[in-house]
Amino acid sequence: MEKYLLIVRENLAKIGALSDEDRFAAGPDMMPWVNDLIEKGKYITGSPLTVSGSYVSQNGVKTEGDFLTNSEGISGFDIIWAENMEDATAIAKDCPMVKCGHCVREVRKFIALPE
User: Fold this and answer.
1) Closest among 100, 102, 104, 91 to 4, alpha carbons compared
2) Class of the CATH-defined domain 2-109
3) Which pLDDT tens digit goes with each residue over 28-84?
4) Are 82 and 88 in contact (CB under 8 A)?
């Protein structure tokens, strides 16, 4: 099994205008999907993220601006075990938020660092 990151991307301006309660009520129930992955031994962890944050570069730190209000940004993540990229992609496609068009998922494989 290999470790994959399933990045949640959605409209940050839209969800930023909602209270947390309304934000999570607007989407589908994710727990059956998560519980199924846990039962299969494929779920490691995951969490939604706040819309606000900091953008840090060698030129300084931004806490407001386009990086936070783009039409699509990172709003959460899940880390899973999968057999390969095809398996990880199939898991992402089965996500209730993807199925209903609430978000898109970006799938990335972790690279094992040399010891």
Assistant:
1) 91
2) alpha beta
3) 999 999 999 999 999 999 999 988 788 888 988 877 666 666 667 899 999 999 999
4) yes
